[in-house]
Every structure is written in C-alpha cells, then in structure tokens.
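#help-structures

NK: newbie question. if I give both the sequence and a SMILES, will the prediction place the ligand too? trying with pyridoxal-5'-phosphate
OV: yes, paste both and it writes out the complex. here, I ran yours:
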Amino acid sequence: MRDTLRTDEGAGPANIAGPQTRSQVAYVNPISSPRGAPSAWIPLYRPYLCGKEKEYVNQCLDSSWISSRGAFVERFEAKFASLTGAAHVTSVCNGTVALHLALETLGFAAGDEIIVPTLTYVASVNTIIQAGATPVFVDSREDTWQIDPDDVRRKITPQTKAVMAVHLYGQACEMDALVNICEEFDLWLIEDCAEAFGTYYKGQHVGTFGDFATFSFFGNKTITTGEGGMVVAKNKDHLDRAYHLKTQAVSPDREYWHDAVGYNYRMTNICAAIGLAQLENASSILEKKRQIAAWYQQGLEGLPLRLLGEFPDTTNSYWMCSIVVDDPDVRQPLRDWLKAANIETRPVFYPCHTLPHCKAEGTHPVAQSLSARGLNLPSFPELSLESVTAVCTVIRSFFRSGANER
Ligand SMILES: *Cc1c(COP(=O)(O)O)cnc(C)c1O
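OV: that's the protein plus ligand as structure tokens.
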C-alpha cells in the first residue's frame, strides 16, 4: 500500500530551512535563468544526517524508549558537555525555551532591565518579555555584527539586571569586554549561542563565559535534533534549579508533589538520539562549513559586498555565510536575481526594536544598516564546490548586468 503522507520520494533529505522554504523537489526556472545558474534549486539549509542518526532513532523505536526517558538523553548531554567544555548542562525541547528557562531560573521582576542587541532573532527578546523583564536594546558593531560593548555601557541604569549576548551567525561576541562589564556592574551574563555551536573566543567555546548559556538544535542549526535546545550553567545550583523548573518543578522524592510554577521543557530520547549522532560528526560538519566559507570568500572577491569573516581572538563556526552589500538598494534585486537562478537566500533579521510588539525608542544605526544590507547565502554542510561556484557566478552576473544600477 502506498504511504500517502510521503511527499518527498526520491528527493533526498528533507529541506527544513524554515516555513518559507520551497519544495525539495528539483525546481527548474521555467522562464530564463541567468547564465551559470544551477539547474536544481539550492536551498539555504538542509540538515546533514550522514552518521548514525537512523540507527540510533531505530534503537529508540525498537526499545520503545521514545519520550524524555531513555539512555540517549544523558549520552547526548554528556557528549555536548565534553565537546564544548560546558560545566553543567540540561537538554530542552528547543532553543527558545532554553532561553526562557535560563531567565526564569535567575528570576526577574517587573521593571528589571535586560540588555540585548536589537539585531538578533526574535526569540532572544520574546523570552525576556515572557520572563517579565524589559528588553533594553543596544546597537551592534559594523565589522563583527555582534553586540557593541561600548553601547552596553551607555545603556546601563540602576534597573539593569543582566546582559544577553547573542553570538550571531557563527561569530563570537567580545567576551572579555562583556564579562568585565557584568562583573563591574554586578549583572548576570546570559549567552544566546543558538547560532554558535563550534564558535570559540580566545580558544574557549562560547557558552562557557556567562552564568547561563543556551543552544538551539533546530533543523537549520549547525547541530540539529529536529527541534531541540540545551541550557548550560556555570554554577551547579543554577543548573539544578533549571532542571527542577524544566521538569514541572516536581519533587525528586515525592511523586506528584510540585513546589513552583514549572514547565515541561524536556527533550525526547528520539531527539537526543539524533543529536548524539550529530555530535559524533561535529568536527566534520564544522570543517565542511569552514571550507564553504573559504570558497565563498574566494568566489566573491572584488565585488561591492563583504562576507562576515573571522576576527582576531575568535573562531567563526560559519553557521551562515552572511554578506552585506555596500548599497542597501541592491539587496532585494540581488535576492530576486538569485531566486530566479534557483538559489535561496534569507535577509538578515529586522532589528527587534522595530517589531510591533517590542517597539522601543532610540535608533541603532549600525543594526539598521546591517539589517537593510545583509543576506545569508546557502550554507548547508553538503554544499559542493560546484554549487558555491554557481552561486558566486550568479552574484557576479548580477553586478555585471547593471541590474544593480536601477
Ligand atoms: C534559532 C535561534 C533561537 C531559537 O531557537 P529555536 O530552537 O528555534 O527555538 C534563539 N536565538 C537565536 C539567535 C536563534 O538563532
């Protein structure tokens, strides 16, 4: 009998770059493709499931350990801690609730302010609001795209309780400066490392500097579990409290006895099974991404744009190969040109202070400019040299065509 739910027959691994993503089925532009365009659609992202993912998931099914109990959860957590050097970790069901759990564990009251870069994914800001605190937005640095420590200093008030550093697109924030500020003003430091598995600052993995750090394992993140996340704490008491809240605040020795407003933020054994297999391949995934970034760097040389590269003291994990075009008016036409050539791109996030539900006073010119000029190019680990070359060729053809001169 035919399995009617399957729509991806013969199309290879599912493309789960996000809700706007097009079908995985090869898409050939019916009109005319720019010269050098690939004949099949190149998505922004596609998870790399080339290790023991299937074998481990089958072990879950065969053993019937499919919920959050089962051996893979602990194995995944232990492997994650050993790879990153994180002191204390607990897995959760996505990167957003990881942030929420960290914030709820620290505990914030109405009026408390948490400093966060306006140029970030909305989850960083939503969870601050959900935790009852007020986000205070700061600008980013033009060169690294990361939170600007000088602007953090300027925004500190007597109400400031914490700084949330977001390591954006695989790059690292300036941790020495941020750690110093947080010590000087007695602030919690939370690191949103959703986009920064494999990212180092001065040889130390990000997520090990702050009081809390969080990771995401969504399908398009460097390491995936489908949906998933990790909470990292520097201090064991913090982790124990986070674990308590994650598991419905149930007493460890008295059944159905709950002593706080808890959550069910647990990761399933199936997700952890995928994650363990991913971590076993982490170094080869990171190596492939570094290679892809180097190909782009070479292929895009001399064009009126800049690739977000690597900076002194940091190791970029190149979650995304991100570029900023010099002229903001060129960004959308370039995206359209690439789309017509079967190449998916994504714009850089809108600055969160401009979103309707987070609207805040103030201007953040660097974040605004990066947001208007930035785009992400296909960045998945299996991307071939041929595909990267095709993307670069199409970008060159755009600038040669004069389409950028309106
Ligand atoms: C992906 C992401 C998150 C949220 O992770 P989910 O697993 O999608 O909930 C949070 N912050 C940043 C910066 C992200 O990129």
